[in-house]
Amino acid sequence: MKSDADELFREAFGVEPRWRSRAPGRVNLIGEHVDYMGGLVLPAAVDRYVWLAGAPAHRWEVRSEASGGEDYLRALAAELGAGPQRVAAAASLPAGFGMSSSAALLVAAAAGLEPELDGREAALVCQRAEQKATGVMVGVMDQFASAMGRRGHALLLDCSTLDVRYVPFPAEMLIVVVDSGVRRELADTPYNQRRREAEAGMPKRARHVETEIERVKRFTAALEGGDRRRCGELLKESHRSLRDDFEVSTPAVDAIVERAWAIPGCLGARIMGAGFGGSILALVERGAEAAFEVAIGAPTVVCATADGAFAA
Ligand code: GLA
Prior knowledge:
The chain has helices spanning 4-13, 70-80, 101-113, 119-134, 141-148, 191-199, 203-224, 228-244, 251-261, 289-296, and strands at residues 19-30, 40-56, 61-64, 85-91, 153-158, 163-168, 173-179, 266-272, 279-285, 300-303. By secondary structure, it is α+β, with helices and mostly antiparallel strands. It has 2 domains: 2-28 and 41-156, Ribosomal Protein S5, domain 2 (2-Layer Sandwich), CATH 3.30.230; 173-303, 2-Layer Sandwich (Alpha-Beta Plaits), CATH 3.30.70.890. The strands form 2 sheets. Strands 1, 2, 3, 4, 5 and 6 form a 6-stranded mixed β-sheet that branches. A 4-stranded antiparallel β-sheet has the order 8-9-7-10. Strand 8 (266-272) and strand 9 (279-285) form a beta hairpin. Helix 3 packs across helix 5 (141-148) and helix 7 runs antiparallel to helix 8 (228-244). The longest helix has 22 residues, at 203-224. The radius of gyration is 19 Å and the shape is globular. The two termini are 17 Å apart. The relative contact order is 0.18.
């Protein structure tokens, strides 16, 4: 698993790393802002990564191209009972983009420090570390996808039982992530506030949670039944609910999403991840992606599903 992280490590510290690891970012097909409500989510690990090279040391020293850094790694090491490390991180995963680069950093670190961990355990440890490092009460979806995703599949996770079911992802459909151009750190967003409102049962927030969980079930059935058009329609419904009921979209994001809906070969699109900027997920028929990338007029990343860092 050699990568630029190796080179960074040697340049920075003048010695060879003792451990190496990598973890993928994720997309979320559907099931937004329901993980912390014990709902169903359907993310997939994708082929954009954070790579780490590390070695035990007397004090922490981190060189990172990835988002988050020493605070995250310290929090994770504390959870695992590991001592200080020298770590170099390289990434092909844009930070602040909505593809969970911070979860990937933590999952990669867990894989490097404790490769024998069970994937579920690793995901939970990384969630706790992220909550402690940032104060943002994130759910467990991103860490699960990065740890336990499987190539060729989406991962249907029941966040109340932590049961996982792998759902084959069709080759005819492409995952295209579109950059809204708005970078943000979750700590600077009303993420915690939305979570509290949902937990308190505020009517609009509760309606989103309830309808979104239903959409996850329908999307999964459509995916299994090969009904790609229905998958696309459900993305549009999800976007409207996130925009109007959960209120995590922005006018700039809405404009890109609506542009995407009108492009031939685009099955559907919606804001992805926490929201408040970040990125947009579009599902595009294979063969239509080049025209889509031109028509959308914003930077895009075409992703393929990938194995998680703890994939069995
Ligand atoms: C962020 C969090 C996840 C989840 C999403 C919204 O990515 O880390 O736990 O809550 O937002 O679905």
